[in-house]
């Protein structure tokens, strides 16, 4: 079911999945990103910080495309209600196990949308004394940006549409799709 849905539009519980990036396109782009990160961080040992839950699939593939010694850790972030969200306030619900002071941090995210999550997270890591903080994001939904976020390594720019798959969810579903699709509700 999942594999056959990868290459064509399909019905999935009353929602329509319109494929945007195939598993192969994603893997090819990640290999390119990994090669660029390997070149840029040569001689250093970056700490990759995955933002749960959406980035779990992307970071698994990206770290294996980086040919360097590195460490991996995870954070989980929760947005407050919609009013608080517009103020950019988010809450850390799982912090790093690893001290960041003096480390070269590469935050790994599935998508930058309004930018509220990432602008908060990147500022917080800088404030903790990281030597450098950069961002690798698979998707950039740039038309919806409310806060500027510098994406140092980008997979794909996408239009203003709700996307799922490859870690991205709708109500916790679809994270396990091996490709990325636009979700259209019927
Ligand atoms: O740029 P923004 O508007 O802040 O949106 C981007 C954030 O939203 C999604 O996470 P979500 O809160 O859905 O959590 P999840 O990763 O567990 O799905 C995504 O993974 C980013 O972390
Ligand atoms: O398009 C999206 N899909 C899933 N999660 C998201 N979080 C922000 N934008 C999106
Ligand atoms: Mg989500």
From TrEMBL:
Enzyme class (EC, first level): transferase
One of the protein's GO biological processes: IMP salvage
CDD domains: PRTases_typeI (cd06223)
Keyword NADP listed: no
Keywords: Cytoplasm, Glycosyltransferase, Magnesium, Metal-binding, Nucleotide-binding, Purine salvage, Transferase
Domain Phosphoribosyltransferase: 23-170
Classification via Pfam families: Pribosyltran
Parts forming coiled coils: none
Primary location: cytoplasm
Catalytic activity: IMP + diphosphate = hypoxanthine + 5-phospho-alpha-D-ribose 1-diphosphate; GMP + diphosphate = guanine + 5-phospho-alpha-D-ribose 1-diphosphate
EC number: 2.4.2.8
Origin superkingdom: Bacteria
GO cellular component, one term: cytosol
Intracellular or extracellular location(s): Cytoplasm
One example GO MF annotation: guanine phosphoribosyltransferase activity
Cofactors required: Mg(2+)
Keyword Cytoplasm among record annotations: yes
Pathway the protein takes part in: Purine metabolism; IMP biosynthesis via salvage pathway; IMP from hypoxanthine: step 1/1
Family statement: Belongs to the purine/pyrimidine phosphoribosyltransferase family.
Protein name as catalogued: Hypoxanthine phosphoribosyltransferase
